[in-house]
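It would be a great kindness if you could assist me with a short task in structural biology. The full record is reproduced below for your convenience:
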Amino acid sequence: MIQLVAQKTGGSIRKVCAVLGEARSSFYHASTPTATQVSDLHLGDLIETVFRRHRRRYGYRRLREELCDRGVTCAPARIRRLMAQRALRAIAPNKFIPKTSDGRADKPSPNLLSGEPMPVALDSVWAGDITFIPTSNGWLYLAVVIDLCSRRIVGWSLGDHMRSELVLAALNQALQTRSAERTIFHSDRGSQYGSACFRSALAKAGLRQSMSARANPYENA
């Protein structure tokens, strides 16, 4: 305040202090930054340097990890405070959600379930699908074969990919435990289900392939 009054009036610090009844020593003491303020300034500069080097994608947790790697120990609350003072806000990345169907099956099979009631006999209709499971080590993909009459899983396969081998393994497991004479196998139009090896396995086992209409993978399934 003393500095502001001196600037506006053009008076000296000595005269302003005399008018206000304040000792000049108190003004100079207050204007000298404390050790904490000096430390905050240096740490804030380092945080901002790291923050901008990583293109504003580091939040306080990752900043703290990098500071620790540099031998700088700092509480998370202090990093958050210094980031707030400098208006440093990390950019939130878009969450990756895998697509389990690309709808690119070559020469899609007709939908044999269209207009038909739900099956009442076991192993008359199977349905195949792929879902994804997030883990600490990345995405895993689960292919299942479901009996549409009992709604029970009759075959499954888990892997770190979505190639045709994944759905083929689930189908082979189902064929080992269930009877599939003239069974309809229904799925979406994913390229895994339209692959030559999968269709060959269906034909060899005597299954009839059925596929949903485009952009409607859950139709009748």
Summary: The chain is about 40% helix and 15% strand. The chain has two domains: 2-85, 94-221. The longest strand covers residues 125-135.
